[in-house]
Amino acid sequence: MTAPQVIKMYAAREEIYPREAKGRYANLRWLCVWLTQLAFYGLPWLNWNGRQALLFDLGTRKFYIFGVVLWPQDFIYLAALLIICAYLLFLVTAIAGRVWCGFSCPQTVYTEIFMWIERKIEGPRSARMALDKQGPSLSKTAKKTAKHAAWGAVALWTGFTFVGYFTPIKVLAAAVTTLNFGPWEWFWVLFYSMATYGNAGWLREQVCKYMCPYARFQSAMFDQDTLIITYDAKRGEPRGALSKKVDPAAAKLGDCIDCTLCVQVCPTGIDIRNGLQYECIGCAACIDACNTVMDKIDRPRGLIRYSTDHALANNFTTKQIRKRAMRPRVLIYTTILALISCTVIGSLVLRTPLKLDVIRDRGAMGREVEDGMIENVYRLQIMNTSERPHRYKVKVSGIPTLALVTPDEVSVAATETYALPVRLRVAHGAGAKGSNKIEIELTALDDASLHVREKAVFFVPR
């Protein structure tokens, strides 16, 4: 009788110690780190018209995006923004693969920052590997403590900044000295800090390989003309170690000397020479490493490079690759993106920064008052979405003798809502029994272009 076999459904994670890569793409990656983080950490502190330039104030239900103030009724614009971002991601992926993942994704950016801290404190790849193999010691404990403290500081500042997009950051900063945060501020600062610390410090490549859905459906957006990280097997194989005593041509060896540097610099630990894999995030670290080796052994660069499957199979030039980039899929994505963007921008430019909701008093559908007149009561919900105060005049129409009994002018502060109760009356005999359609018009006295009309119903008792 054979012994039972244990089949593991989940393989234990093997620690990855990425080597630092230097080169053109590494510099580009760090440029993206600087640009994205300057924007992320800096935008909450930018002022616009005496307020925070970018603020999603959930408490007051107002979204401030530079000169635009959006209300819950404008949620369609935020939905459109998400659709634009989605189509932009589809377009970029169809053209250049996972370039977003490799250079600008928050997971990649913060992992890059955390690995830089790790290298500065624990040393290069070989030193980190040796340190982890060591037994407990004072030096090891000091280095690990310093690393995690630095990670924690970056994570806390990131969590604080994130919450600063939803709670005015200057108010939040004033509360830091006394730790007088509200319960939701405490929750989200700590939650986002722990997410940053865990994802960038501990999970790293596991987020890209197992948690991120993008890697799973990228194949639906790739085709034979999508730019991907490729290994030129025709040129590189058969691979073998370079020896000064042996002529590579005579030994019939390819340009790949099997140094494995492309594997050592990979943040997800894959071997790009095995072909495109879903774990590849397109960071191009392997290209920098391989180009450095090619320079040292006096071989042409580009053994590992950005290319396409068609280009590798047919030896396309760079000009041919660019020409084939403008294919139907790319044109469709571009057209849809342009149409949605133009529609949203045009709608924002042409929209009137004034909203009016008419709410009838359902407790009194219609009542007879003095002189036999019929009265209906309404509440006008006036929303001044501009950043200037305005005074508005109310007009009504739709039934003969229809008139306002209450004052017909009201002032509303900038970006504020005002509930104005109004009473409308008609003479006895005016209007049909039951429901009568009317219109309520609101016009700014200081700017005639600011006017809106809303339909309502005036009820005459039967």
Automatic annotation (TrEMBL):
Which Pfam families does this one have?
Fer4_18, Fer4_5, FixG_C
Q: Where is the 4Fe-4S ferredoxin-type domain?
A: 247-275
SUPFAM superfamilies attached to this UniProt entry: 4Fe-4S ferredoxins
Residue ranges crossing the lipid bilayer per the database entry: 28-46, 75-96, 149-166, 186-203, 330-350
Keyword annotations of the record: 4Fe-4S, Electron transport, Iron, Iron-sulfur, Membrane, Metal-binding, Transmembrane, Transmembrane helix, Transport
Q: Is the keyword Transmembrane in the record?
A: yes
Superkingdom field: Bacteria
Q: Which NCBIfam families match?
A: ccoG_rdxA_fixG
- This protein is called Cytochrome c oxidase accessory protein CcoG
Q: Which organism is it from?
A: Janthinobacterium fluminis
Tell me what gene encodes this. Answer: ccoG
